[in-house]
Amino acid sequence: GQAGDAPALKAADIGCATGVTGTETARAAADMVLAGDDFTDIVKAIGESRGVCGNIGRAVRFFLCCGIAEAMAVLIGLLLWKQPPLLPAQLLLVSLATGVFPGLLLAIGSEPAGQDIMKQPPRPKNQGLFTRGSGLWQGLLIAAVTLTAYWGGADRMAGGHELGATMAMTVLALSQLLHAFTARSRYSLFRAGWLKNRYIFGALAGSLVLLTPAIVAPKLFGNVPMNGEQRIWIIALLLLPPMVCGMVKLIKNRIIKKRRS
Asked: Which of 237, 227, 242, 25 is nearest to 138 (CA)?
C-alpha cells in the first residue's frame, strides 16, 4: 500500500499492507503487514485463522453443551423426584472425565480445517461464537436422555435411587463423550470422517479409563451392578442424541446449500 491508502486501511475491518513495497505510513495504518508481497499468503493466513477460530468455537460449544446437560439434569431431577438424579461424586467424575480430555483436545486445535473452509462466506465482524448453534438444544437433549435413564432404573425397573443414578451417570458420561464426535464438524460423522482426527480417540480412551471403574465396579461412587436389560436401555438412549444431531445437520446443510445456489 501507498501513503494515500492509509485512510482506507484504517476504515477496513482488517487493513492489510505489503511488507516490501508498502510505505511506512501504510504499514503503520494496517492491522496486518505481510512479510513479503505475495498475496497468496493472505489466503493461507485466512485459512489458518478460520481453522483456529473454528476449534475455539467447537470447544466452547462443547463445554457449554456438557454444562447445560449436567445442570438441567440435576435441576429437573430435583423438581420431578425431590432429589438429584446423580450423586455429587458421580457428577464430579462425569465433569472431570468428559471435560478434560475431549474439550481440551478440541480447543488446542487438533481438529484439522475442512477442505471447504475457504468456500464458506466471511463471518460478520459482529458475529459471536454462538450464532450457529450454541449447544443449548444439544445439552437439553443429553439431559433428557439422562433423566429418562434415571426414570427407567429408579421407577420403571423399580431399582430405586441407586440404580437410577447408576444408569443416569452412565448415559450422561457416555453421551458427552459421543458428543465430542458430533461437535467436530458441521457435517455428519460419515462426511467429516471418523479418522481425520485420530488424537480424539486417545482423548476418549483417557476419559474411559477414568469412567470404566466407576461404571463396572459395584458400589464405587455409589453405583450398583446392571443387568442385560438395563444395558440395552443405556445403549438405546446413547444412540438418540447422535442420530438427532446428524439429522439436524443434514437439514441445515441442505438449507444452506439451497440458499447459496
From this structure: 242
The number of helix segments (H) and strand segments (E) in the chain equals: 9, 2
Instruction: For residue 170, report the phi and psi dihedrals to the nearest 5 degrees.
Output: -65, -45
- Give the C-alpha separation, 151 to 155, whole Å: 5
Categorize the per-residue pLDDT at 111 as very low, low, confident or very high, splitting at 50, 70 and 90.
Answer: low
Cell readout for 152 is: 427407567
Count of CB atoms situated within 10 Å of the CB of 184 = 25
Cα-based torsion angle of the residue sequence 224, 227, 230, 235 in order, rounded to the nearest 10 degrees: 110
Task: For 186-200, write each residue's pLDDT tens digit.
Answer: 766 666 565 666 777
Summarize the chain as % helix, strand, coil (round to 5): 70, 0, 30
16 pairs with which residues across the strands?
32
d(CA 52, CA 106): 10
Q: Which of 23-32, 108-117, 203-212, 221-230 has the highest mean pLDDT?
A: 221-230
SS (H, E, C) 24-73: HHHHHHCCEECCCCCCHHHHHHHHHHHHHHHHHHHHHHHHHHHHHHHHHH
Contact 186, 132 (CB under 8 A): yes
pTM above 0.70, yes or no: yes
d(Cα 91, Cα 114) in Å, to the nearest integer? 34
Helix (H) or strand (E) holding 230: helix 228-260
